[in-house]
Backbone:
């Protein structure tokens, strides 16, 4: 399950989203760092925090930003419902804050 965002500059969109989280400008989202030093997003609500993580990765052609669900290796694998809920909440923020930067938006199961 993932979101595919077509945009003119996927790396810039990823950088902006991460910067907005770091600066408190993306409500209800926090950053976590994994062993590989990737910055992952988690919903900050107590019910969802650290259960589903979102990894933002520009594709090889730098045409799309891929947003994929992840989870900590020592935690239970999140259900489809949990993953879908978190992706849906993140989609809300994308539509509200970044609509002008998005050319197309696709959800994939």
Residues:
């Amino acid at each position: 399950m993932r979101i595919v965002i077509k945009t003119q500059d996927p790396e810039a969109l990823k950088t902006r989203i991460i910067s907005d989280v770091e600066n408190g400008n993306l409500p209800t989202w926090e950053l976590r760092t994994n062993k590989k030093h990737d910055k992952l997003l988690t919903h900050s609500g107590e019910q969802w925090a650290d259960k589903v993580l979102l990894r933002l990765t520009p594709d090889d052609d730098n045409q799309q930003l891929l947003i994929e669900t992840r989870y900590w290796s020592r935690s239970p694998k999140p259900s489809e419902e949990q993953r879908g809920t978190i992706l849906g909440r993140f989609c809300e923020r994308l539509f509200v804050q970044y609509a002008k930067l998005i050319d197309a938006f696709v959800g994939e199961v």
